[in-house]
Every structure is written in C-alpha cells, then in structure tokens.
Amino acid sequence: MDEKKVMLSGIQPSGDLHLGNYLGAIKHWGARADEFDCYYFMADMHTITVRQNPADLRRRTLEQLAQYIACGLDPEKNTLFIQSHVHQHAELGWVLNCYTMFGELSRMTQFKDKSAKHADNINGGLFTYPSLMAADILLYQPDFVPVGNDQKQHVEITRDIAQRFNNIYGDVFKIPEPYIPKTGARIMGLSNPESKMSKSSPEGCVFLMEKPEDIQRKFKRAITDSDTEHCVRYDPENKPGVANLMSIYAAVTGKTFEEIEREFDGCGYGTFKPAVGDAVVETLRPIREEATRILADKAYLESVYKQGAEKASYVANKTLRKVYKKIGFVAR
Ligand code: TRP
Fold first, then answer.
1. Nearest residue (CA) to ligand 1, atom 4
2. What is the pTM of this model?
3. Sign of the CA dihedral 253, 11, 65, 291?
4. Radius of gyration over alpha carbons of the chain, in Å?
5. Per-residue pLDDT tens over the stretch 255-289
C-alpha cells in the first residue's frame, strides 16, 4: 500500500469548471488513485495574488471542492484539502523565499503576464508565487506533479530550488517530475472552434453546473462549418466545428468517429447538434446533482476538508521539521 508513488496538484479556485476541464482532465483523475497516492488542494493562498471578493473566494473554494468530488475524486481515496488550512505551506514558503533568487523570479513568464494584466496590483505575493508553489509541492515529497503547459516553468523552478537546498543541506527534498497526463479529449469552444474552450468566452463554454436548457441552447448555436456539404464527417482541417462536436460526442458516449458518422449519415446539423447537447446534458446531470447535494451537506463537506487537512498537515509537518532543523532553527 505505502509503496505507491505520490502525486500532488493544486487547483486555483478562481473560476467555474467547464466541459473542457472535465473531458480533458478531471474525468481521468479519479482512476489515478488506484496507481498513486494523490493529494489535491484548493490553492486559495495563490488566488489572492490577484484581488478577490472575499465572499466569492469562499463560495468558489467550496463549490470547486464539491465539483471535484462529484467528478469522481473520492475523498476516501484521495487527500483533498484547502491550502490555507495547512499552515506549513506558508511556513515553508517563507523559508524557500530565502533560497529563491530575485533574478529567477523576474524571469517567470506567469509573473510577467500577470503583472501586465494587473498593472495596478503588482504585489510581492505575485512575484514570490513560485516559492510558495515550490513549498506546496516539496512538503509532500511527491514523485509527480501533473501540470499543464502554463505551469511547467513553475515545476522547473521548484526542482531548481529543491536541488539548491539539497546541495547545501543534504537530501531533504525529493526532486519531483512534471507529469504530463495522457491526453484526454482536447475540447474547443463551441463558438470559436479554433481556440480551447475557455470561461473567457462564455457563449462557447459549457459549465458543469449549467442548466440543461442553457447547455442545449449553446449546442444549438454551435459553429459547424460554412461549406455546403452539411454532413457529419470528421475533418478537423476543414470542419473544425463539426470535428469538435464529434470529439465531445465521442468522449461522452464512448463511440468512435466512424460510428458517429454512420449514426448521423444523411442527417443535417439540425439533428446532430441537439443530439450532442442531449448527450452532454445527460453526462453532466449526475455531476451537477451530486455537486449540488454535496454543497448543501455542509457537515459532509466540512468533514472532507478537515480530514484532508489533518492528513496533509501530518505529512507536511514531517518535512517542515526536517527543514527547520537543517537550517538551524531551535526545536520547540
Ligand atoms: N499555480 C497553479 C495554477 O495556477 C496552481 C498551483 C498552486 C499548483 N500550487 C501548486 C499546481 C502546486 C501544482 C502544484 O494552476
């Protein structure tokens, strides 16, 4: 049992989850617990590097936790917690700040992007974000950190910081590897099939908690193609909108593209689009109902994040004690 490799990932509670997140990633996370000892946390401490409305942050953190559970992250098999509940993150974050160079932090692309975007609030936390993220990771001595492309640089700097620390004090930290998940479906926007589905263009984005009639409306309005052929055929080059709808349909029904072409042979998009909408509605219905149920059950949700924080603290504390000892803090 204890031989399992450790995997850890943080999720920012900064927006609502959508179909692209689900089919591309989250759907496949539940099964990971068979192979890995998994930790997932809501990275609320990272979220405040950009100004937040307090009530929204609190609501989103809980909503997101409920949604992840509803998507199949079983709290009995995974350690699910809220970052700010485990004080070792802040503590190791401070220490690692002192082992992270100004020059390194200045070169981070996320810092450059976010400070351009929030020019009125370029705060210290935004700048030292990577040392806190390194602490998040290194506390749990994980083997793997699953990340998307935008976060690879942060795993790189984590490795550099860990290596630097180990060079001075001996093997304190395990050097984690980025884990590039076997790709789930890559889902594009319904209104703009050239770019990934994203909450920044909400007309083409289907949210997990959305009402069935709203989901249907978005599918009925989905961009198909401008050619006159009007048939359901997989041709991502010339018919990206249709290909995207086929990918979605394939992901939710398990059918192959050939089966889908046969199923809709002779049908126009007027039949195809609502059929995809229906299939998506039926896939999301149990998730939405379960997330709603969990959110309403405050005692349950609380028991999940309390137990998660307890387990996480235990592991994190072992690493933090070792670090404090190595750097010369007096034991208490
Ligand atoms: N920076 C990550 C993001 O914005 C979230 C995150 C915080 C994270 N700490 C982490 C991811 C530790 C992996 C590991 O998506």
1. 12
2. 0.92
3. negative
4. 22
5. 999 999 999 998 889 999 999 999 999 999 999 99
